[in-house]
């Protein structure tokens, strides 16, 4: 081995060790409240390392550089891109992560290295673990990119690779990865229930209604708040999740982003198990590290920055809120989304009726609560593992200090009603509250869905939520689904027009309606309570029956006087009243009723929130 070749490899190893130290510091920092400095330093170090292996590849290979080491560097760069996406919500950073992960997978950096490695079984096992973790990370990015074919392929590859590893290393315990596969299966079953459906992200083509733009513009003459920061967290036992991303936060994360267009939609490559993807750069590793910097979409505003907290303690959550509030600008509003159980006892009780594979879905969608209960367990959320205790309880009073800043609070829990206490108790800024409906009695006969929280599902994907509630499967006719979606869009457009032209609209809502993300959540909230009034259950004969549930709207809904709503909808009410009454009085609807007539019934159910607002609205 020539001295130049050995020297090049020593330089590579020294730079790799320095970059790894910077990466560790950046990785250990939270993805909120600063930390960009360490992330930039780590990215700069890996940029230098990547360029070195590009420019001196032949010398490095001759000096002992192995393919898995190149894959490890590329994987770290992909992780930095993904961390930047989580920190800044920049779509181009997510694209950057996908590009690097796809290149690693298609070139088989880890797989080829494991097969050709001569450093012994221990070294090969370590490389195998690296590849398992890499595929799991790639899966998360592919799911966020909505690459259905890539997700299906990677999921199959991960399952096969775990089985191969168990055979190759029979004395090694892969129990953890078996659990990962179980979580992945539940997650993909829930997230992929309606493949081909529209993205959860905000799309101007579908989510913006030109007929109401002039009405929305009138709010700009007064104070207008923009959504620039959001805190998303979910803590439920047995909830649907993959790695540290729960299904509820996964949906809400996408719901608070713009749908990318133009150059963001990079061409998808066909992923193959042996890495035979067409690759112009071949084995040279010429992946452009600045590729994502060249991808831009000037027509879209920036996405709100989001802090996604996985299973936090109460003190951790409050610390995050305090940090973010300190950095909140004067024209900004902070969205706080919390999906959690009411208490340990309620969560355990609700699981009595749930199967072992989908107990979270029952606890989330159909929690158990007594109608007139005034127990102390119904005045807080429960953020904790098994057992219960004061340190794990989040009370409405814990959030009141943060009302010195504008807050948009979304609580998804059977105890959400407790957070009405925040109303009129604010310390400076009136808070906007969207609280999930409260189910007043146990529903032991209702089937568990495994689709995550029903309320969050309505807020992020209302059409899919209606389908899931009605028991309509993913094999629904495409035209029927599209027609039903257009009907729902029309209901949203009409409801938006009423909100934006209302004389009696509370200023709390008036100053946030111009924000497209918040306006869309408010519109869907106005529809979802009615959808949640109807729980569809299979009967023995194969038909469906309706169950009516309580709704606790009161002051949380936009303050439009009933008289105005009824006046605006009088003609519509007169023409539809008899048909609507027939819909409610009917106790049986055929299970396969996917015709336009059935969807008209869905529309009538959804539009009743517009016709008859909740008491106190």
From TrEMBL:
Residues 566-587 are annotated as: Disordered. GO terms for molecular function: transcription corepressor activity. InterPro entries: SCAI. It comes from the Eukaryota. It holds the Pfam family SCAI. One of its GO terms (biological process) is DNA-templated transcription. Residues 566-583 have a biased composition (Basic and acidic residues). This is Protein SCAI.
